[in-house]
Amino acid sequence: MKKQFAVIGLGRFGFSVAKTLADFDFEVLAIDSNEQRTQEASNVVTHVVQADSTDEEALRALGLRNFDVVVVAIGQDIQASILTTIIVKEIGVPKVVVKAQNELHGKVLKKVGADKVIYPERDMGMRVAHHLVSSNIIDYIELSDDYSIVEIAAAPAMIGKNLRQLDIRAKFGCNVMAVKNGDKMNIAPHAEDLIKEGDVLVVVGKNTDLQHFEVAFA
Ligand code: ADP
């Protein structure tokens, strides 16, 4: 059985989530209280309903109980976002993902039962800043507040050296988990493995240590 998704709030973020899921051929129920927003979405996703998500009866009538994942993408109206999250959790949706405006909003969402809180602007801002600091950074995944994984293209200073010579663990306190090259993935790199042109290092570490590492090879 394919997963069933619903997206509540069709602003820029919610619309993009709904459209991408539809592009993956998933059935998506998109809900917004605004008529124009629902009309725009109707060309893109399977089911679109104009409804106020703070109206519990309306959500129950839509059968939201049967959905695997509900994304609450109401940004500006924090009260509506919190109420909607409470209702959707009470209805019994197993996974509720909610977009938060700020840290305090995020804390409240966690308290009322959101399974995952996301901060799209904050996270995108971090990504862009990492790319600006080092053009070698390909991706950046936050593991917790303090730890992340970065994918970094091998800098010219790394090429032809092995991991022992680069001494990343001792110098920066970070760990090279894997080395990718095209489709090839070395998930247990040895100290003697040479870094080649086109390699991508997958490095895990504390954010502060990763920053030192990124800047050193920028
Ligand atoms: P973004 O920053 O992603 O564009 P917005 O906060 O501008 O997000 O958009 C949120 C969307 O959520 C809007 O389309 C708005 O009509 C919708 N929305 C706000 N409150 C409700 C509600 N109570 N029920 C349903 N949709 C809502």
Give your account of this protein's structure.
- It comes from Paenibacillus allorhizosphaerae.
- InterPro entries: RCK_C, RCK_N, Trk_Ktr_HKT_K-transport.
- The model has no long low-confidence stretch (mean pLDDT 94).
- A 6-stranded parallel β-sheet has the order 3-2-1-4-5-6, with helices on both faces. A 5-stranded antiparallel β-sheet has the order 7-8-11-9-10.
- It folds into 2 domains: 5-118, NAD(P)-binding Rossmann-like Domain (Rossmann fold, 3-Layer(aba) Sandwich); 123-216, Alpha-Beta Plaits, CATH 3.30.70.1450.
- It contains 9 helices and 11 strands.
- The chain starts with a strand and ends with a helix.
- The protein is of the alpha/beta class and 218 residues long.
- The protein is 38% helix and 25% strand.
CATH class of the largest domain: Alpha Beta
Query: Which molecules are bound in this entry?
Result: adenosine-5'-diphosphate
Q: How many helical elements?
A: 9
Structural class: alpha/beta
Rounded to the nearest angstrom, the radius of gyration is 22 Å
CATH topology of the largest domain: Rossmann fold
End-to-end separation:
46 Å
| CATH homologous superfamily grouping of the largest domain | NAD(P)-binding Rossmann-like Domain
Pick out the low-confidence regions: none
Topology order in helix (H) and strand (E) letters: EHEHEHEHEHEHEEHHEEEH
Q: What percentage of residues falls in helices of 4 or more residues?
A: 25-40%
Mean pLDDT: 94
Range of strand content:
25-35%
How many domain units? 2
Shape: elongated
Question: What is the number of strand segments?
Answer: 11
Main-sheet strand order equals 3-2-1-4-5-6
**Largest beta-sheet characterization:** 6 strands, parallel
Architecture of the largest domain, according to CATH? 3-Layer(aba) Sandwich
